[in-house]
Specification:
This protein has about 400 residues and is α/β, with parallel strands linked by helices. The protein has 12 helices and 22 strands. About 35% of the residues lie in helices and about 25% in strands.
């Protein structure tokens, strides 16, 4: 009879040094001795990913994406080999694999590849030999044997994808916090741990700046209904379950997020005629830049200003592409502003509660926080504001929506 399968993922802070790797080995072994088969996905040690990226940009201001994936994938390989050694030192057999070795097949999109399939036969053979399987997160391989990476936070996606393929009973994400909080506890001391949250809410939080999990991993878990338990590597406490909701009534607002890694670009004096916006954003898309919030001013002079936000990491590329388009359509100057932040509130109860947006705008107004742009979804509202006021806005919204008092 097949044993139940648990997939565990340990982030960079959980394996930051030898002592922590040894502690993770002990934790993994305690799961295995409960008669489960265990697959462990690991991130790179501590700040290794940032250090490798910095080295690359020091050598080449525009490093080739293929070579970036070759470089960046090495961090996780170090972690998984060391963890396998640590588990073996405790007396249990373990084996480490790269993403390619366990058959994680991806498309050819370097630095942000998408998983096509996973061939889990090698993992199952290791299970048959009663081995704990350690997999390097964040990476896969194309049909032409080229190494690819899955984007920032991609080890989460590796873990969820393996849990789906292996039909695991749960996917545990171990990190340096005890779960998902109503907001960043570093900003608000009164932030509360949320015990259970829906896939939709977590997807919005992740997309809007909460850095606990990669958004793509939540999408995959939702599609295949894989429960995710986000918990601390340094505590035995229960964390946050991400799963379908069983509650009759949803809370209107579950969390507040803040994203400081966006910039605003404005194209001035754009000709106000049909097709211009399509031309602008088709060109930006072809340039490989993701655009988020878009605002077009009302035209009174046959010309208008169009503003939009992009990830700050893509700003230089976006400005280059946008300037070329502005010249082509005979628009005015292109300006940009790095000093912005996106503050958002999220909650599936927004579908049935009225007055949430009005309350958010009133709270920001009372705290003299000017709103530059607004975007909404069915379960979230986001405002682009001055970055220097971001913490003030988060604290005010968290208090106003009583997130410090609810039984999360």
């Amino acid at each position: 009879m097949d044993r139940p399968i648990i997939v565990q993922k340990f982030g960079g802070s959980s394996v930051a040094n030898i002592e922590r790797i040894k502690a993770v080995a002990q934790r993994v072994l305690s799961s295995k001795t409960r008669n489960n088969d265990v697959v462990v996905v690991v991130s790179a040690l501590g700040d290794t990913t940032d250090e490798l990226e910095a080295m690359a940009f020091e050598i080449n201001e525009n490093p080739p994406e293929r070579e970036m994936d070759m470089l960046m994938s090495t961090g996780e390989q170090i972690s998984c080999a060391l963890l396998a050694m640590a588990i073996k030192s405790l007396g249990h057999d373990a084996i480490s694999f790269t993403g390619g070795q366990v058959g994680i097949r991806t498309d050819k999109s370097y630095t942000k590849a998408r998983i096509h399939s996973i061939d889990a036969r090698r993992i199952k053979r290791a299970f048959a030999d009663n081995k704990i399987v350690i997999v390097a997160g964040y990476q896969g391989i194309t049909e032409n044997q080229e190494i690819t990476t899955l984007g920032r936070g991609g080890s989460d996606l590796t873990a969820v994808a393996l849990a789906i393929t292996l039909r695991a009973k749960v996917c545990e994400i171990f990190t340096d916090v005890e779960g998902i909080y109503t907001t960043d506890p570093r900003i608000v001391n009164q932030a509360r741990k949320i015990r259970s949250i829906t896939y939709d809410e977590m997807l919005e939080l992740a997309s809007l700046g909460a850095q606990v999990m990669q958004a793509r991993s939540i999408e995959a878990a939702k599609k295949f209904n894989i429960p995710i338990h986000v918990r601390s590597s340094f505590s035995k406490e229960e964390g946050t379950m991400i799963q379908n909701s069983e509650k009759l009534e949803e809370i209107s607002v579950r969390g507040v997020t803040c994203n400081r890694s966006e910039s605003k670009i404005t194209i001035c004096a754009v000709p106000d005629k049909p097709g211009v916006a399509a031309l602008i954003f088709t060109g930006i898309s072809k340039g490989g830049v993701n655009v988020d919030t878009i605002v077009q001013n009302v035209s009174h002079t046959r010309q208008t200003d169009i503003s939009f936000t992009v990830p700050t990491s893509s700003l230089s590329k976006a400005l280059k592409v946008t300037s070329a388009i502005a010249k082509k359509i005979k628009a005015g100057e292109v300006t940009h502003d790095k000093n912005i932040a996106r503050v958002s509130i999220v909650g599936s109860g927004m579908r049935s509660h009225h007055g949430i947006a009005a309350k958010m705008f009133s709270v920001l107004a009372e705290n003299k926080v000017n709103i530059e742009m607004i975007t909404t979804s069915e379960i979230s509202i986001s405002c682009i504001i001055n970055q220097g006021l971001a913490d003030k806005a988060v604290k005010a919204l968290h208090k106003s929506f009583k997130l410090d008092k609810i039984n999360a």
